[in-house]
Amino acid sequence: MKASDIISAAVVTVPAEATVVEAARVMLEHGISGVPAVDHEGRPVGIITDGDLFRRCEIGTEPDPRLQSQGPPSDLDTIRRFIQSHGRQVKDIMTRDVVRVSEDTPLARVAALLDLKKIKRVPVMRHGKIVGIVSRADLLRALVRAAAPRASIGSAARGRDDD
């Protein structure tokens, strides 16, 4: 199987210039935990997730650098966390280095990327445009669909044995 076999084609995006509140609203309205950020031509320029939004100054959840478990933060870490918690637009806090796949990418490769990069979703691209998303949930649905015919065959065989 490949990415195009399990793609979620209804892609929700936000402009990179959108506010973080607008991005949060879009995620809540669509019941999703992340959304690609796009430029004015619809090309992906980043991705913003609920993880980017839950440590915010507006709600008093910004990170305290003194409480980090990895030891004292570097100046770069401190700056990054400040921008993450105080940025006003998606472009200020989005992840810019987005992992992407093509429609022909084998599912084994998609799963390996999600695991290796510790991400939950990956945009599927065609000619520089997003045509869908493959998420961990899509992989779970593929697993259930793939197991369904076998389960039916197994229960039909068991039914004949019981006669």
Task: Please summarize what this structure is.
With about 160 residues, this protein is α/β, with parallel strands linked by helices. The protein contains 7 helices and 6 strands.
General description of the model:
It is built from seven helices and six strands. The chain has 163 residues and is α/β, with parallel strands linked by helices. It has one domain: CBS-domain (Roll), CATH 3.10.580. It is globular. 20% of the residues are buried.
Low-pLDDT sequence parts: 156-163
Biggest sheet, spatial arrangement of strands: 1-2-3
Please, what is the CATH homologous superfamily?
CBS-domain
Distance between the termini: 37 Å
Largest sheet: 3 strands, mixed
Average of pLDDT: 80
CATH top-level class: Alpha Beta
Number of helices: 7
* Integer count of domains: 1
> What is the alpha-carbon Rg in Å?
20 Å
CATH architecture: Roll
CATH topology: CBS-domain
* Helix and strand sequence: HEHEEHHHEHEEH
Strand content: 15-25%
Coarse morphology: globular
